[in-house]
Write a structure and sequence with these properties.
It is globular and about 30 Å long. By secondary structure, it is mainly β. Strand 1 (3-8) and strand 2 form a beta hairpin. It has one domain: Beta-grasp domain (Ubiquitin-like (UB roll), Roll), CATH 3.10.20.30. Helix content is 7%, strand content 37%. The structure holds FE2/S2 (inorganic) cluster. FE2/S2 (inorganic) cluster (FES) is lined by residues 34-37, 39-44, 60, 68, 70. InterPro entries: 2Fe-2S_ferredoxin-like_sf (IPR036010), 2Fe-2S_ferredoxin-type (IPR001041), 2Fe2S_fd_BS (IPR006058), Beta-grasp_dom_sf (IPR012675). Residues 2-86 form the 2Fe-2S ferredoxin-type domain. Belongs to the 2Fe2S plant-type ferredoxin family.
Length: 95
């Protein structure tokens, strides 16, 4: 399993390359908005500012540079930004 760092709205948490960003953020204590969790609604979208993700097929509309966190697994360290500050009780990753 490849360990990576996920930076979300300036908070860094540890992550991996096999789970969706939404699942990993939740496990780290961050609570992004979501509804369907299957790529239909777009509620979980955010800007991908750095890094790359593998995104499964999705129906929801996203603007250029945006990804769906419920359908995207990071492939490298990533930096993402939601338009709002998600509730967080995150553990900061040791660097
Ligand atoms: S939660 Fe609906 S598209 Fe991600």
């Amino acid at each position: 399993m490849t360990r990576i760092t996920i930076e979300v709205n300036g908070i860094k948490v540890g992550g991996n390359t096999h789970q969706s960003l939404l699942e990993q953020l939740e496990q780290a204590g961050i609570q992004p908005e979501y509804q369907c969790r299957n790529g239909m609604c777009g509620a979980c979208r955010c800007q991908l500012q750095q890094g790359s993700v593998k995104q499964e097929d999705a129906m929801a509309f996203v603007r250029p540079g945006e990804i769906l966190t419920c359908q995207s697994a990071p492939q490298t360290d990533v930096s993402i930004e939601f338009e709002y500050q998600p509730a967080a009780k995150a553990k900061v990753v040791n660097e």
